[in-house]
């Protein structure tokens, strides 16, 4: 009898675990015991081997779990020991839907056996709670254990990845604790930005999230979008659950703080406390934004589904910390922000002693209206309004009015008092296309009367239909035409009645005109300039000088005709201008006067704003010869060396401005090596070749040299 019973039991087990009807019977028993909360579709396989289900679902207390295309192997030996082991487990798609917050948490399931999942893979997971939705792909679960001793103890480790061209995500998840109180640790990298989240979850009682401690960074915003500043942001959130929401603290720090023109973010750190009872909105209190340069913004606000609204108070705001060309300031004042989904507004006024800046701007969709803008300092101001149309390209129109506005009051700009108006409209995209009109009158710039008016059209790298004039002190300039394309041509004029208004140690008058053509990369110019009554350093005077130049900056040629110290000089030069230095050669040089001279070979020459370098210079002077090995001049030092033969003494006397004191037919041979920095040092050796020298008056002459050797 016992043998028959044993045999019947073995047969029943073989039927249960070895046949598909046995699988269907077991699943039906599970459905009945769950009071219909479990449901299965199209089950195939055996409990002793692989089982596949087209659909597996569970629904209870507003929570729905549905799995599609499920395949697993149940380990019989473990089941006999009171433990369900599914290894491996494959789920193509898993949906978890929970009711909107505010309802009663689901009851803790009473598991009559332990559960272990191993080598589990989920192709896609969709989680929804009310209107909130989350998704993940390619989930790999190394193991997931729910034990019975201690009751409902949980241990799990999983990983998942999200493939994305710009923002790939790789994450690992660890679980511990119990089903009543889950301890979760999520570590992930999003586009190489590391983050670490630790949370305590209580899914079967309120609050469902007991606590969270999250950190991320460093984050470089410039990696996520072109045009954003370089940053090294670190973010930290520490909060506790309150009802269906959170309350805690948020902080941001930036280790790459700097001005916007250095492509950095001028925000050093942000700190705030927040309370979000339902996660639908959050109240921010104790909000503090520390800026570069010591300025702070403090206040409060509220974040809702519609956006953000808040009031901030600025203290010690330093404009130079925002942009390095602006002045040092300590601005203070109120700011109001409303960043709703449909409309965003900003208004505020910042001021300090002698300066104020105020603005009001509204954004509706792709339209930004700057309703008012005012910047005032030192008795002057600029006011304006405008519109921006977001998109590609960006459309704009602007109108500015200036009244005694001093640019230097706001930064490292020229000092002045500017009055007038500026208008413009156009588009900014890959290229700028704009029409600009300006009129500045009754103004002052660099302590000189200033006025300008004109119109121009900008199209990419071309300036079209320019028609402008400007006057600074007595200097007048004008431009007419277009520039930027090979066929464009722009005519210009310049009149400087007093060079001393613009150049140190130089006086005289200048008139110039010409054309500019070509492109920005290879501009071509034709210049005609005429100067009169020039007075140059070291006593040089030119009653008249005419120059004609043609070519581009890198390669050009010019001819100069001048009367210098009563001598007629004709010179031809060629060379190029790069990085503030003109480098080339004196191709020819001829002079007619009391002593004629002629350059025997081209001489190298370099000229910058504050220095001149002349290389080997060999010339015939009358019947004699002059060789200059070098001449180097700067404001702090002069150095020269060379030699001469048959040089007329009268030529040296005229060059020194001593014709009224000395006269003669004396010809000299000699050599020199002299420096002045500023004291004169060096040697001058003279030897009489022929002729005589006569003193016209009894008065000693100081040569200022350390030594002079004369050979009769």
Outline of this structure?
The chain is mainly beta and 712 residues long.
Any overview of this molecule?
With about 700 residues, the chain is mainly beta. Helix content is about 5%, strand content about 65%. Strands 35-36-39-40-38-37 form a six-stranded antiparallel β-barrel. Strands 42-45 form a two-stranded antiparallel sheet. Strand 10 (about 195-200) and strand 11 form a beta hairpin. Residues about 700-710 have low confidence and may be disordered.
Helix and strand arrangement:
Layout: H1 2-18, H2 20-33, E1 38-45, E2 50-60, E3 63-74, H3 76-80, E4 83-98, E5 114-129, E6 132-146, E7 154-162, E8 169-177, E9 182-190, E10 193-201, E11 209-219, E12 233-242, E13 245-254, E14 267-276, E15 282-291, E16 296-304, E17 307-317, H4 319-322, E18 331-340, E19 343-352, E20 355-364, E21 367-377, E22 380-389, E23 394-405, E24 416-428, E25 432-445, E26 448-459, E27 462-472, E28 475-483, E29 489-496, E30 507-518, E31 523-535, E32 541-551, E33 556-564, E34 567-578, E35 581-592, E36 597-599, E37 603-608, E38 611-614, E39 617-621, E40 624-634, E41 638-648, H5 649-655, E42 662-664, E43 667-676, E44 680-690, E45 693-695, E46 707-711
Parallel strand pairs: 4-5, 44-46
Antiparallel strand pairs: 1-2, 2-3, 3-4, 5-6, 6-7, 7-8, 8-9, 9-10, 10-11, 11-12, 12-13, 13-14, 14-15, 15-16, 16-17, 17-18, 18-19, 19-20, 20-21, 21-22, 22-23, 23-24, 24-25, 25-26, 26-27, 27-28, 28-29, 29-30, 30-31, 31-32, 32-33, 33-34, 34-35, 35-36, 35-37, 36-39, 37-38, 38-40, 39-40, 40-41, ...
Helix pairs in contact: 1-2
């Amino acid at each position: 009898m016992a043998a028959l019973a044993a045999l019947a039991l073995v047969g029943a087990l073989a039927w249960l675990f070895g046949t598909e009807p046995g699988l269907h019977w077991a699943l039906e028993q599970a459905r009945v015991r769950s009071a219909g909360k479990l449901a299965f579709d199209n089950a195939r396989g055996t409990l002793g081997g692989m089982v596949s289900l087209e659909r597996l679902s569970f629904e209870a207390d507003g929570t729905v779990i549905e799995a599609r295309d499920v395949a697993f192997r149940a380990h019989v030996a473990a089941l006999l020991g009171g433990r369900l082991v599914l290894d491996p487990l494959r789920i193509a798609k898993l949906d978890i839907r929970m009711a909107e917050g505010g309802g009663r948490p689901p009851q803790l399931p009473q598991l009559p056996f332990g559960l272990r999942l191993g080598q589990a893979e989920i192709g896609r997971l969709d989680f929804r709670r009310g209107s909130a939705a989350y998704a993940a792909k390619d989930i790999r679960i190394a193991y997931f254990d729910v034990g019975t001793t201690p009751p409902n103890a949980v241990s799990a480790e999983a990983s998942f990845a999200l493939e994305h061209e710009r923002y790939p995500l790789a994450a690992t998840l660890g679980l511990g604790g119990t089903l009543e109180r889950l301890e979760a640790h999520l570590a992930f990298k999003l586009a190489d930005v590391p983050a670490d989240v630790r949370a305590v979850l209580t899914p079967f009682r309120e609050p469902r999230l007991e606590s969270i401690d999250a950190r991320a960074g460093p984050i470089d915003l410039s990696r996520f979008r072109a045009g954003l500043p370089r940053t090294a942001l670190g973010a930290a959130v520490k909060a506790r659950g309150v009802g269906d929401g959170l309350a805690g603290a948020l902080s941001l720090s930036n280790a790459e703080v700097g001005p916007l023109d250095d492509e950095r973010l001028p925000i050093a750190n942000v700190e705030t406390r927040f309370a979000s009872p339902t996660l639908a909105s959050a109240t921010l209190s104790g909000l503090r934004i520390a800026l570069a340069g010591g300025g702070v913004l403090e206040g409060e606000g509220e974040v809702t589904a519609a956006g953000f609204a808040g009031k901030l108070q600025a203290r010690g705001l330093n404009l130079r910390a925002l942009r390095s060309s602006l002045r040092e300031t300590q601005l203070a004042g109120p700011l109001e922000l409303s960043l709703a989904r449909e409309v965003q507004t900003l208004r505020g006024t910042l001021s300090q002693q002698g300066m104020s800046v105020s603005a009001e701007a509204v954004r509706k969709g792709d339209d930004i209206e700057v309703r008012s803008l005012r910047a005032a300092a030192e008795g002057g101001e600029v006011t304006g309004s405008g519109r921006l149309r977001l998109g590609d390209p960006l459309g704009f129109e602007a109108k500015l009015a200036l009244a005694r506005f001093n640019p230097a009051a706001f930064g490292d700009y020229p000092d002045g008092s500017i009055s007038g108006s500026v208008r413009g409209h156009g588009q900014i995209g890959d290229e700028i296309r704009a029409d600009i009109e300006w009129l500045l009158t009754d103004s002052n710039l660099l302590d000189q009367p200033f006025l300008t008016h004109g119109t121009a059209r900008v199209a990419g790298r071309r300036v079209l239909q320019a028609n402008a004039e400007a006057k600074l002190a007595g200097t007048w300039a004008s431009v007419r035409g277009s520039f930027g394309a090979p066929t464009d041509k722009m005519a210009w004029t310049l009149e400087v009645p007093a060079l001393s208004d613009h150049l140190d140690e130089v006086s005289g008058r200048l008139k110039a005109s010409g054309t500019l053509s070509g492109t920005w990369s290879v501009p071509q110019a034709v210049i005609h300039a005429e100067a009169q009554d020039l007075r140059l350093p070291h006593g040089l005077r030119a009653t008249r000088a005419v120059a004609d130049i043609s070519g581009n900056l890198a390669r050009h040629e010019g001819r100069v005709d001048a009367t210098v110290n009563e001598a007629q000089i004709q010179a031809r030069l060629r060379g190029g201008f790069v990085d503030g230095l003109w480098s080339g050669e004196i191709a020819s040089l001829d002079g007619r006067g009391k002593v004629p001279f002629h350059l025997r070979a081209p001489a190298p020459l370099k000229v910058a704003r504050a220095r001149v370098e002349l290389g080997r210079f060999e010339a015939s002077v009358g019947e004699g010869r002059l060789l200059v090995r070098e001449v180097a001049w700067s404001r702090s030092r002069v150095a020269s060396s060379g030699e001469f033969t048959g040089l007329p003494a009268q030529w040296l006397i005229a060059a020194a401005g001593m014709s009224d004191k000395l006269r003669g037919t004396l010809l000299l041979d000699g050599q020199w090596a002299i420096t002045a920095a500023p004291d004169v040092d060096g040697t001058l050796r003279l030897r009489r070749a022929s002729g005589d020298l006569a003193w016209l008056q009894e008065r000693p002459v100081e040569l200022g040299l350390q030594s002079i050797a004369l050979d009769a």
